[in-house]
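Lab notebook, bench 4. We co-purified these components, and the gel suggests they stay together. Before we commit to crystallization screens, I want a quick structural picture of the whole thing.
Request: model the full complex, all chains together.
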Amino acid sequence: MKISYYPGCTLKYKARNLEKAALASLDVLGIDVEEMDRWNCCGAVYSLAADDLIHMVGPARNLIRAKEQGAGKIVTLCSMCYNTLARVNQLMKNDPEKRDTINRFMDDEIDYFGEVEVVHFLSLLKEEVGWDAIRAKVSHPLNNLKIASYYGCTLQRPEEVGIEPMGSFTLMNDLFEALGAEVVSFAGADKCCGSYQVICEEPGDNSAAAKVLNLAAENGAEMLASSCPLCEFNLGKQQEALLQKGAISNNVPTLYFTQLLAMALGVDSKEWCLELNDKITVDLLEAKNCLAAV
Amino acid sequence: MTPALQRINQLSTTSAAKRISPAFFRRFPALIQVSSFDPFNPRFVRPRPRTAFHCLNQERTMTLPMNTQKVSMTSIERINELSGENVKLCMQCGTCTSACPMADEMDFFPRKVMHYSQFGLLKSMEDINSYWKCASCHSCSVRCPRGIDIAKVMEALRLLVLRTSKNHIEPSRIPAEKLKEYPGILMVAGFRKLTS
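Here is the predicted assembly.
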């Protein structure tokens, strides 16, 4: 079955480190994915209003593209894209009335009935490769690295599109264990990072992000791994400002889970795109000897 | 809680509050400021909650003074229609508030927003920041014992303002240096949620 890859807006620019590391890792693992032709923005947030169908058109068009191009699955890396596409897919599958309206609106496109499956990269790794196979391919285990998995809001909520049940973080935790790292569990793994609220706040005022970072630090995490460019912005790029304003007391370096995967699999270091991460992240990886091998 | 604060707390909840001379409270202006409660001034504007004590105070006023003129059936209908939910199902347990990561920055906690929505008190919710602070993280929705998707109610309240062509944030006023830093996903999501 053909797997179509949907990147989303930020992964071609500010979050190249999320995408490049993932695609290079898939090459090593022998999974074929093909970037979708003519993809468009998913809208980042799912429209919650009952009468708002126009905002479903963008994501639905992506699903139609995948169907047109003969894909059985769409895989996404960004968790907000995953959430939006998966929820619109559910709507197209389960709500005949709204589906017909959307299909009629896009009368130049083929009709879509929810045939394509939307999966997140983590689920794809588990289903198509499996943790044992990944463990076998790890050439540079991430020993001595204490990582906290950060899911954020959109990977688990609402329940019908969650990649796993609420309160369980096995997908990311199992992956990191397979990569040889030590997993730190903490209560902030599914707490909101403040999301798009930072757009109307001054840097350092995001109390939601501060809570997550404080919880991670209190539980002894040396590093926070996420799968969303917005979480990375709030928790990583804004961390210095949070520290300056005294909202957090300790730095917690952040990076994308795909970068850890690429490092452990011995992917060429060019593909890690660490230049897009903060200095504290690079420093920690250097101190832990994760950068020396490749 | 200090004994003095406890005392004020106690006074303000009992009928004794009506009998105590305002002079008593004037003697302890600092305490009144901290407790943000002035039983002698019905127009007292409560500051934004910043301490646990403020939050407690906000939640103490669970009773809504109500009469038939105040209730707006059309507003209830509009909220229900836009959200696709039934706000009357809410039993005021406050689970949403305890789950909300933004609650401590909100003027009204989610429970109170639900309470006001149940009576269609849109006017009283015009100036509160609660539904603008909501980040649609669904922490409340997945925990609601009555199965209400509270995030959708918050969205409905936002849309009731946005659909009158009022922006909550003005994109043109965001400084260029900030825009340069912002990832695309932040601007798409932020403008979708906070502009008309």
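The interface with chain A takes residues 81-84, 101-102, 104-105, 132-133, 135-139, 141-142, 149, 151-152, 155-156, 159, 168-169, 174, 181-194 of chain B (CB under 8 Å). Worth comparing against the SEC data before the next meeting. The radius of gyration of chain B is 19 Å.
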